[in-house]
Amino acid sequence: MKLSAILDEYPELNPKKVKLIRHAGKEFRELYEQGFLEAYQCSQGKPVFDKCEYILSFMATEKLYCRFLGCYKVGEKCSGDDKLNKMPSGYIYPDQFNRGVYYDLTPVDIMSEYKDRLIIEWSKNTQAWHQWADQPKDIVALYPQTNFREINPFSTYEDVLLTYDELVAIVQDTLTYNDWKSALSNVNGIYLILDKKTGSQYIGSTYNQDGIFGRWKNYADTKDGGDVGLKALLKERPDAYKDFQYTILRVLSKCITPEEAINIESLYKEKLGTRVTGLNLN
């Protein structure tokens, strides 16, 4: 099924006057998580929305897939000091408002029933982040109108608190939980696995290019992650993984060396005594 089949349902959406925009990249992610999506897309370096009546906004997920965020009516544009005055308080990339133009983009109810449900495939030319809507786009998925997310959107690393079942859901459905995959892949860290039934703790660290996500995916796949202490626990109590809870004690750089990460991990083991009363055997 093509996106054009949905656009045909809305006579006000003339594909030759509607643009699809694909948001991606570190800056966008940071701004989106802080609630600056609309300010970000209103501020443009070039007049890319001229002759455009509406834009359909999408967020890049995995592969070439994009999730629909909403429809916006294109209004007046301004530049210079008028644009600078449009910058919201707390905007973390103020240089974006020092150049180019600003479009008044008003959110409308058109296609609102597809928000967060509609997934399309972008073209292989991802550098063409804005395209006219008459370009063919395949619909990859259309989720039910009921809330398909069982896990809340990622907020901060300090708030991470996942059960084993939640971790498996994130790993197995990275399309839905791309916000979690992206956040956990972008950092390494010191993490803690708690056996909620006994209170025993296991502390580990990551120091790889896949970040915390790569290591935790291994736990989702194997339950013990190859850790000797967890293997022993699961041999004694095979369903213990059902009581596991995953959290992050400290965020580390993606560039950290194994030696540096292991030294920090060792410090946390000493602080929390997980070698004495916990599940760390080294």
Verbal overview:
The chain has 282 residues and is of the alpha+beta class. The protein has two domains: 3-142, no CATH class; 157-272, GIY-YIG endonuclease (3-Layer(aba) Sandwich), CATH 3.40.1440. Helices cover 27% and strands 27% of the residues. It has nine helices and twelve strands. The strands form two sheets. Strands 1, 2, 3, 4, 5, 6, 7 and 8 form an eight-stranded mixed β-sheet that branches. A four-stranded antiparallel β-sheet has the order 9-12-10-11. β10 and β11 form a beta hairpin. The protein is elongated, with a radius of gyration of 23 Å.
Write the layout of secondary structure elements.
Elements: H1 3-7, E1 18-23, H2 26-33, H3 37-42, E2 43-44, E3 54-60, E4 65-79, H4 80-84, E5 101-108, E6 118-121, E7 130-132, E8 138-142, E9 161-163, H5 164-172, H6 178-185, E10 188-195, E11 201-205, H7 211-222, H8 228-236, E12 244-252, H9 258-272
Helix pairs in contact: 5-7, 6-7
The domain count comes to: 2
Distance between the termini: 54 Å
What is the helix/strand order?
HEHHEEEHEEEEEHHEEHHEH
Question: How many β-strand runs?
Answer: 12
How does the overall form come out from the CA principal axes? Answer: elongated
Helix content: 25-40%
Determine the mean pLDDT.
93
Q: Please give the radius of gyration in angstroms.
A: 23 Å
Task: Compute the number of helices.
Answer: 9
**Sheet having the most strands:** 8 strands, mixed
> Structural class of the helix and strand makeup?
alpha+beta
Percent of residues in β-strands: 25-35%
Q: Low-confidence runs (pLDDT<50, min 5 residues)?
A: none
